[in-house]
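Hi L.,

You mentioned the student needs an example of a multi-chain input paired with its predicted structure. This one should do, with 1241 residues in total across all chains.
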Amino acid sequence: MAQRKSSRLPENTAAADTPSTASTASAAKLFEYAPAPESRAIVKINPSYDLFIGGELVPATGGALKTVNPATEEVLAEVGVASAADVDRAVAAARTAYDRVWSRMPGSERAKYLFRIARIVQERSRELAVLESIDNGKPIRETRDVDLPLVAAHFFHYAGWADKLSYAGYGPDPKPLGVAAQVIPWNFPLLMLAWKIAPALACGNTVVLKPAETTPLTALAFAEICRQADLPPGVVNIVTGAGETGAALVGHPDVDKVAFTGSTEVGRGIARAVAGSRKKVTLELGGKAANIVFDDAPIDQAVEGVIDSIFFNQGQVCCAGSRLLVQESIEPELMDALRRRMETLRVGDPLDKNTDVGAINSAAQLARITELTEAGEAEGAERWSPACELPSTGYWFAPTVFTNVSATHRIAREEIFGPVLSVLTFRTPEEAVAKANNTPYGLSAGIWTEKGSRMLAIAKKLRAGVVWANTFNKFDPSSPFGGYRESGYGREGGAHGLEAYLDV
Amino acid sequence: MSDKTGADSKAKTTVAKKAAAKTVTAKKTATKNPAAKKTAAKKTAAAQGSPREASVAAAVPAVSGAAAGKGTAKRAVTTASTETSAPTAAPPTSADASASNGSTTTASVPAESNATAVETQSAERPSTRTRLAVRKTYKLYIGGAFPRSESGRSYEVTSAQGAFVANAALASRKDARDAVRAARSAFSGWSGATAYNRGQILYRIAEMLEGRREQFADEVSAAEGVTRDSALAQADAAIDRWVWYAGWSDKISQVRGTVNPVAGPYWNVSSPEPTGVVAVFAPERPSLFGLVSVLAPVIVSGNTAVVVAPGPTALPAITLAEVLATSDLPGGVINILTGRIAELGMPLASHLDVDALDLSGVTDPELATELERAGAQNLKRLRRPEPEPDWTADPGLDRIVSFMETKTVWHPVGV
Amino acid sequence: MDPAGTHHVPDRLDLRAATGNEAALRGFLHGLPGVDKVGAEARVARLGTRSIKTTAKGFALDLAIRMIDLTTLEGADTPGKVRSLAAKARRPDPSDPTCPSVAAVCVYPDLVEVAKHELRGTAIKVASVATAFPSGRSSLEVKLAETRMAVAAGADEIDMVIDRGAFLAGHYGAVFEQIVAVKGACGDAHLKVILETGELVTYDNVRRASWLAMLAGADFIKTSTGKVSPAATLPVSLVMLEAVRDFRAASGRMVGFKPAGGIRTAKDAIKHLVAVNETCGPDWLDPQWFRFGASSLLNDLLMQRQKQAAGYYSGPNYVTVD
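Structure written out for the whole complex:
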């Protein structure tokens, strides 16, 4: 296999231990990429953070938790843990803002606030991208080129809806719901925040949002942006904390709407908790997407698509193409190409602009990925990773592919949420569809074929909310996103995404 | 006329054991006690408040001319008539009648109940002075066929005044399980049919409904104790609403589908698709109009349904099933279980192969909460019951869209 | 032991004499008691009214799973398909490690090697069909070569088909000799003899063919190839269970039984187990003496098992498609 490369410390390190970026294969031996770190200087991280309630920074009364840079295990800051009383205060602030200000404001005025926010996000986009990378562990290339542009785009798109709700197909004068409780995950912290806050505000609701406990920093930066935009106090409230804070928020009696993105297990608990109440709920949960490659696929692009589907964001994506379903007749050829391509993946310092695969978000997540991959080996699947030197500190997992996977294997059923691909085979299009749909999930799917009629026929049969054909992991604020079955209900994006925040 | 009375008692006993009697009928038999019969008949007629019944007096046998004008021969079929064959008129109607939870076991089934599964509606003819009407047996409607409950149980449907109307099948959780299986099997065909085809079938259902307008009015009247005019109005409203929904099948995609202008060289289309198998709990009132209002929007988009028709709604519900069976609707698309929501709710709400729940007919808020919680196991899509629904209001698209999924497809654009 | 107690062996069951020549064999087989169709079907209907609930049901479901010969016999079979099936055989329910594995995997001879490889280290057997399955229409040399090929590739069990044409033409000796020859080619592998009861049609024929196969040395008698309908109906199974019971009583040798084809639901499977229990007795309630030849049965058993554990009905998305 490829020879190990010795690690080299990058220059201009702002922090104590910056992991090196080790190239994964012999291919890079002649032309070594020098470290190309994005500067941390653009970001200022405070030692501690309060909650953002009613337009003010308010100390939390439920304790504090530390957020860590997963690439180095360095403690970045302490953020407050919102107690039930803090949550109550936040909901009250949101209610007051709703009753007195936001629900009375014409859509065209709300729109202008959202446009301001979108603009400020664009202005501060580099800073936010670096901050996100440091707090989450994902590569700067992704936060810079994917996350942040989409964040701004979401605010732009929904700013434009705020005064056009009567055209959206929900009746001549649809009303907002009131106060929305929003709980978001750690995999795309600022983007998930945008997906939640932009439509909610556009429709006239006020929000209390809780970012994930391991990735609070960009949400807190967003609080600052709200102040910079002069957003009326209480329209957006940010309460940091962990599971208990989330439960208090979702369970609060004065909340009209609950929106959650996260695991199916927690989503199920939320659906139970709101039973019998008047709260409207939307859930965006887990997935185990099938990425189907037919024998007439454009092989090189398909390989790119597969790589992107499972290694983008270290595979920590609900819609990841975690099951590759390859037509049996081309499996050897595709796998060779895939392994060859995996050897060019660069794992390492998230702030290095050449890094392809960053750090796993937390020790807990790393443990889960490890457990499932060990199960995969025990079940009899064949495991392979390119040779890859992983830094000694931080949470790292090498890109991994399992072949010889069968439908009953745990690694074919359970969401791993890491850079681990399970490869299964099929013989006919019917079999591909049956296997792809044979899961309690239904979030996304991929199809690779050059034959148009086949693409359309398969897309029609796949029970998934998003179908990517000859592409993967594409997102846009105008494009509705959400799942079938246990991947949740409701859609985010486009006109469809307004429904969640209107009283219809 | 003891033998006739005897025959009546036997017939009634048979009825009480869920025999194959098809229609509820007034006994036209002469009795030993015409006076008692006439009185009973008159009381019933009065209770019904239906001038129509009273007018069919002429058919009553062995009744004096004077009495005939006031007595009542109940029209055959579905009016809430009693066994006015009097002395024994009391039994099913009195004690047991009030509790409409007559849970009778299947005794050795009398010969006449070895009827074929799909029983065609007999002619709605009033009993004449010499002819006993053939009563309809109300069975379940599963997979396009009319089976009895596997539990063998039935319950009494009584009129608002407590008079015996019919024995309806009391569906069990195993019937629910079978219904879900039938609905699942029918899903790929129904959702795979063209929208046009579904619309045509729904329109045909409306045609069949129209043909049975009077029968429905009879049953609604019996089930709810409302006047015939009111029942007819309800039947008309139900038919019209069904026609309205039929027209939506090939328009939902246009109204709820979108072409999304993504920022890149991709073709991107979102379109609505049916969710799958929906368990629908129909409201008790209005018995026909409510049923139609919850059912049509579910299936027009391609979903298949398991409907729980509670208590007295069994009557119009099973007659609706007969309409469905004669309308080119594939078996399994709609399945109707008559019985108790309290009993059938949990097996359906917890069933992992049910995709969505319409709790409109669940009047007990605690039960509704429990069912919602059970449904959370596999993240069922859900409609909560409304406290005071106005069924006559414009339904809009909401009930259709609640049971649809949006699928978004991306494809690169390039040569 | 025979649940009926001591079993008087009538003179007609002198088995050595029976197989002496064609005439003797014919005489023997035609001398077996006939089967009354209506009576047999009524017995089956009565057995079907047994109510198997709670712990008994749980026991029956697990036993049924352990008795499955998980089968794929399609022209379109590929190594990938066999691998997938083998994985399922080992671990049928991905969400429940307490679920037992199946008894065996059954494939065509050219895929035995793949199956053996995938199942190494487990107790799951590899069964192979052979002898020009399913029709059986070929020469004896071809049939024996195929058998040897499967055995050489590692098959633990061979499922052969009898020559139905010869049987129905009354050439019992030819059928008998073919079975003996195939048994010889099996070496250490166990031989299951498929009667293809759907083509034999009458219960009388089923009884005769069962005895014929057992006399010729079958380790198991099996109802069907699964390619012809009707396959393993309960009355047919009843007749064959009676045959294995009577054969043991007459010869002291125990022969196994495998119904195959048409058993799709847990309910069907449990009815079979009840029939076994009350016909030939609990000695046969073991994967060593009883197998279900099935593919879709397994998923229904798993869903029933899930329901037993969870209390609510499961659905097809909670079991796998292989």
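You could point out the following to them. Residues 173-192 of chain B form the longest helix (20 residues). Residues 173-412 of chain B form a domain with the Aldehyde Dehydrogenase; Chain A, domain 1 fold (CATH 3.40.605.10).

Best wishes,
N.
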